[in-house]
Design goal:
This protein has 323 residues and is an alpha/beta fold. It has helices spanning 54-61, 84-87, 105-114, 120-133, 149-161, 179-194, 206-212, 230-234, 252-259, 284-294, 309-317, and strands at 14-25, 28-39, 43-47, 69-74, 77-78, 90-93, 167-171, 198-202, 215-220, 223-228, 239-246, 264-269, 273-279, 302-305. It folds into 2 domains: 14-234, P-loop containing nucleotide triphosphate hydrolases (Rossmann fold), CATH 3.40.50.300; 239-306, Alpha-Beta Plaits, CATH 3.30.70.100. The protein contains 11 helices and 14 strands. Helix 6 (179-194) links the parallel strand 7 and strand 8 (198-202).
Length: 323
């Protein structure tokens, strides 16, 4: 994990501090005593099903909407709708691409940068850096409609980072892009973080979150459910490894033996592939293989998969990830 910014007392400085946030839309409670702490220098994953309150929380942090009670501090200052000094230090890359079709790549980045940086000479250098950073040098004169989906996403990012924000919100930045573009975007996010930006990252792609996020918060119904590193979150769930074994001669008696094992949660067998969901344990795979051998069956190809972040998500929220 990268080094994070620390105070003289050795404590990590806070980029965002949200305490007891409550937001209602009529009878709907969108945020229910919601807490959030983001440290300076980290990539922080904010996860939840659609309707969980993620967007509401972000909009409250950015002072784009009012909330009923609680507090929001950014860089240890109260965040208000007129906190322009704080807002200049923040960048936003929305899920829906927000660029101007009538402007080309360079003009788009310059326009959004001008919202923060009025000096033309300074802005020219920042625009060039942002375009180079996302790899759009060859497309400077292209208008958005001529760009592929991946290039358009990169332009969206360039518009949000040109003013070099200290705090950056990235909302689903890799939706519907090809694997090459996704990899380029994720590598760019890690470089932004290495260059000093604190990043709040939302995504429905769990493998991305595991790859780049230092800590992850899972929320639902406007509440904080769980917080930790990817490994720490996986320790919170009861499920252990998922074992798959090719075997074509497993008898009903052998199947009963496996189902009755203390470590086994669930078993599926279609005549060729045995799938066993286990509790957490140190030697589940050896125990299942031993049971197969004792039943007289033959084991072929074997795989064992440890719990994933998606398993944690499903156990905590009971909901599949949805776009």
């Amino acid at each position: 994990m990268k080094a994070q910014q620390h105070t003289q007392t050795g404590q990590t400085e806070s980029a965002i501090s949200v305490q007891g946030l409550v937001k209602r839309y009529g009878e709907v409670l969108a945020l229910d005593d919601f807490d959030l702490q983001v440290r300076q220098g980290e990539i922080f994953g904010l996860l939840g099903p659609n309707g969980s309150g993620k967007s509401t929380a972000i909009n409250c942090i950015l002072a784009l909407i009012e909330y009923d009670s609680g507090s929001v501090r950014v860089f240890d200052k109260s965040m208000r709708s007129n906190s322009y000094d704080l807002k200049r230090r923040i960048g936003i890359v929305p899920q829906n691409v927000a660029v101007i079709d009538e402007l080309n790549v360079q003009e788009n980045v310059d326009y959004f940068c001008s919202l923060y940086v009025p000096q033309k000479q300074t802005r020219r250098e920042l625009v060039d850096e942002a375009i180079e950073f996302v790899g759009l040098e060859e497309f400077r004169k292209y208008r958005p409609k001529k760009l592929s989906g991946g290039l358009l996403r990169r332009l969206n990012i360039a518009c949000g980072i040109a003013h070099k924000p200290e705090l950056l919100f990235l909302d689903e930045p890799t939706v519907a892009v090809d694997p090459q573009s996704r990899n380029a975007i994720l590598e760019g996010i890690k470089r932004l973080n290495a260059n000093g930006s604190t990043i709040v990252y939302t995504s429905h792609y769990m493998e991305e979150v595991e790859q780049i996020c230092d800590r992850i918060l899972i929320m639902d119904h406007g509440r904080h459910l769980a917080l930790g590193t990817s490994d720490e979150l996986k320790q919170m769930v009861g499920a252990g490894e998922r074992i798959r074994i090719e075997t074509m001669d497993l008898s009903e008696q052998g199947l009963r033996i496996i189902r009755d094992m203390d470590c086994v949660i669930d078993v599926e067998y279609d005549g060729t592939l045995l799938q066993v969901q286990c509790k957490r344990g140190d030697h589940n795979l050896l125990d299942v293989l031993d049971a197969i051998n004792r039943s007289g069956a033959t084991a072929g190809h074997v795989t064992s998969q440890l719990p994933t972040l998606n398993d944690v998500f499903l156990e905590l929220t009971g909901k599949a990830l949805r776009d």
